[in-house]
Design a protein that fits this description.
mainly alpha, two-stranded antiparallel ribbon
Length: 205
């Protein structure tokens, strides 16, 4: 009864999300973990697509957002909806990306809404990364490396070049002597494999 009262400020959908988080973190329920990803993969992707206006970058950032969120899942508290927490992680990660690439895609006072109708306004600060941001970025890289090692060699090479060497699709195409369309298609497949690995690898996080 006490638990229900403490969640009364959350919508019914948010309460169900919290139950999934509890099952995923405390019971190591991989289905709950998978359900959260399936539920928010598309909404996160389309939100990020609006911010970066590029399909490939939005796919990359969606993968990174879930990697970050799942590595911190035990830090989530029901003070606010899980979707609010997840969308904020995804948006902040995207802002780091925009800052790094120095793209003026998102205005300083741009508002982003999640599925619950909550709005956030984020600011793009200085172009330089703070020591804390550098440390977080390094943790993100290490997390994704765990999953990448489980991919087939050809996909591992592509992800290594794209994520860790930060090569463009065109540069990868030239380096591997592959058509640009093939590079994009294989990287798309690699991301799908990574999503599946992440869904079934909660205990390794």
């Amino acid at each position: 009864m006490k638990k229900e009262k403490s969640l009364s400020h959350l919508s019914e959908k948010a309460q169900k999300d919290y139950e999934l988080v509890q099952r995923a973190t405390k019971s190591k329920d991989q289905q709950a973990f998978s359900d959260l990803m399936e539920k928010y993969k598309d909404p996160i992707y389309y939100m990020l697509l609006k911010m970066v206006n590029n399909n490939d970058d939005a796919e990359d950032l969606t993968l990174e957002a879930f990697g970050k969120a799942f590595s911190r899942l035990n830090q989530y508290t029901p003070n606010f909806a899980f979707s609010t927490w997840l969308f904020k992680i995804a948006t902040n990660n995207c802002i780091d990306f925009l800052r790094k690439k120095k793209k003026n895609v998102m205005s300083i006072d741009n508002r982003v809404s999640n599925n619950d109708g909550d709005e956030f306004m984020f600011e793009i600060k200085s172009n330089g990364m703070t020591p804390e941001e550098i440390a977080v970025n390094e943790q993100k890289i290490q997390l994704i490396r765990k999953y990448v090692k489980k991919l087939k060699p050809r996909y591992e090479i592509l992800v290594e070049m794209r994520y860790f060497k930060e090569m463009s699709y065109e540069e990868i195409s030239v380096e591997l002597n592959l058509p640009l369309g093939t590079v994009k298609a294989q990287l798309f497949r690699a991301r799908e494999f990574l999503y599946n690995i992440m869904k079934h690898s909660f205990e390794t996080i």
